[in-house]
Fold this sequence. Notes:
Oligomer: single chain
Bound molecules: alpha-L-arabinofuranose
CATH class of the largest domain: Alpha Beta
Radius of gyration: 23 Å
Strand order of the largest sheet: 3-4-7-8-9-10-11-12
Amino acid sequence: MRRASVLLRHDEVVGETDPRLFGAFVEHLGRCVYGGIFEPGHPTADGNGFRGDVLALVRELQPTVMRYPGGNFVSGYNWEDGVGPPTERPRRLDLAWASTETNRFGTNEFIDWCRLAGAEPMLAVNLGTRRGDAARNLLEYCNHPGGTAWSDLRRRHGWEQPHGVNLWCLGNEMDAPWQMETKTAQEYGRMAAEAAKLMKWTDPGLALVACGSSGHNMPWFGEWEATVLEHCFEHVDFISLHNYLNNYGRDTPAFLAAPDLMDSLIDEVVAIADAVAARKQSGKRIMLSFDEWNVWYRTRGQIDAVRPHPAWPVAPALLEEVYTMEDALAFAGAGISLLNHADRVKVACLAQLVNAIAPIMTQTGGPAWRQTIFHPFAQLSRFGRGRVLRAQVDSPTYAAVCHDPMFGVDLRFALPAVPYLKLAAVQDGGSLTLFALNRDLEQPMALEVSLEGLGSPVIAGAQQLCDPDLDAANTRDEPERVKPQPLRDVVMSAGRLRATLAPASWNMIRLSPPPERPPAT
Length: 521
Ligand code: AHR
Ligand code: AHR
């Protein structure tokens, strides 16, 4: 049995979570839109073609913002193709995913779907094949009330009221060679600054996200962020980060350690953004938009494999990663990293939502189900909102070497002291929720949490996600194989919580104020 202890004090605080920390992502990619959120003719579809079974699961997942329409797709997207009478919309080759895009679903349908899902739309503009002019026209189409050609076109298309989209991405992964019309940091920084200027002149209240590097492992990471922010510091509010955890190395302890690299990635981008602010003698703080995060590796090479002989299918089954118990643990660890940086990470998007590297899977014409990663996300989104406490964790550690290959180079990141326990604590009013990952694959962990100045709460509920088979997954035929179970071995006494965490487990423990005693008569 390993032992770990944690000290939580009411006045040791990271920050408040922004509601936008619990977002997700819908890209025109594979069956994310078509056969995912949108499938006219499906038995559960409504009059708009929105799948009711998927919507029900999305509401359970509770993502707060929804990024759209890409991803790699947006860098070749002409938004005008996706508005107006559906039967008149053009079919186009999508070079990002070697598919045929029917444009049956576009911006207006997405906004309607977001309203039903209870999520705030986060739109990306195309700064690959297009630039500021197309971006400001899309913005005018979406947000201007009326009386101009673009806004009146929206009204004629049937959306009388402006969409009021506040959060916008200035392109996607513009450093990446797999992007349409990749740019250097200088080229992108200038273009993003000018696009941002036009957009904020059109609608001054916007929140804009500039592209950071598409990964920690890109050769220009750091340099890219600094150069881009030199150009667009005054015009933007966020810089983006993307990270996909992998287990290419078939080394589970290292895989579960990888979320700690996300902590460093965040710290590094904060440092770079603040260094640019210092050089500019500005008190402005650029916040972080971690707008793609997940586990993704098994299906990562898929598109590169089909590119030489594309068949241009409509909505092919692409990137349909089947998530295991082990993936859910690594994923949950990444969720803890985001919470513990709530002071600077103000937006985050699980990439993606349905079918393509997603918490929700569907069969076209058939059912929808929850993948393993669905569960930690739903718990974080539901109970992770509030004031994040700076947990002082005292845990035994292990050494790991994480692999993150890029461009044929097997990049390795050595982590000499990975705590077996990874934990976040979030206070919401009188309630306190602990999210705890036991990264020891063999031994249970005796966890002791001391609370200072946090009252004498009682246990309101405790759940664990674990399975002796780390390869266990949820499938169409066995959709409930991996799901949270009650965590029984947890007690609270004299300001101390004691729990036993199973090996390789994700745990959520909720505390609430003691029930009020009726006044003595
Ligand atoms: O989420 C899948 C892809 O990963 C996105 O389209 C792209 O932005 C990233 O490379
Ligand atoms: O991370 C992006 C993806 O990784 C690209 O879409 C693909 O070409 C690469 O393998």
